[in-house]
Amino acid sequence: MEQSMTFPALFKKPSAFMPVAMSLAAFIVVISHIMIYGAMREADEGTAAHLFQLLLIAQMPIVVLFAIRWLAKFPRQALMVLALQAAAGFAALAPVFIFKL
């Protein structure tokens, strides 16, 4: 068993970087949709909205799995990864609130 782990080493674990990547993908979906169609509310949610929702919801079990697996072993590094995951999630949500989509 590993005695110590650095933040970069822990972030290389799939359960650490996948939620960040999924948040980035969700952010890209929203921004590209805004760039193509503009920032207006639509009566019917389209594919972009559904993809955005799926990306954000699907990462929750991964975050929980990460917390269960690593928080007890390496609390400081795991909290830094969880903070990064949360920041990425809020960054993905920001355009939705800013543009009131």
Question: What brief labels describe this structure?
Answer:
101 residues; mainly alpha; 4 helices
**Radius of gyration, in angstroms, nearest whole number:** 16 Å
> Which regions are unreliable across 5 or more consecutive residues at pLDDT < 50?
none
Instruction: Please state the average pLDDT score.
Output: 93
Total DSSP E strands: 0
Strand content: under 5%
User: How far is it from the N-terminal to the C-terminal residue, by CA?
Assistant: 47 Å
Which sequence of SSEs, written as H and E, runs from N to C? HHHH
Q: Could you give a short account of the major beta sheet? A: none
Shape: elongated
Number of helices: 4
Determine the fraction of residues in helical runs and give it as a percent range.
over 70%
How many structural domains?
1
**Structural class, judged by helices and strands?**
mainly alpha
SSE order and pairing:
Elements (H helix, E strand, L loop, with lengths): L6 H5 L2 H24 L9 H24 L4 H24 L3
Descriptive report:
The chain is an all-alpha fold. It has one domain. 76% of the residues lie in helices and 0% in strands. The chain is built from four helices and no strands. The chain has helices spanning 7-11, 14-37, 47-70, 75-98. It starts with 6 loop residues before the first helix and ends with a helix. The model has no long low-confidence stretch (mean pLDDT 93).
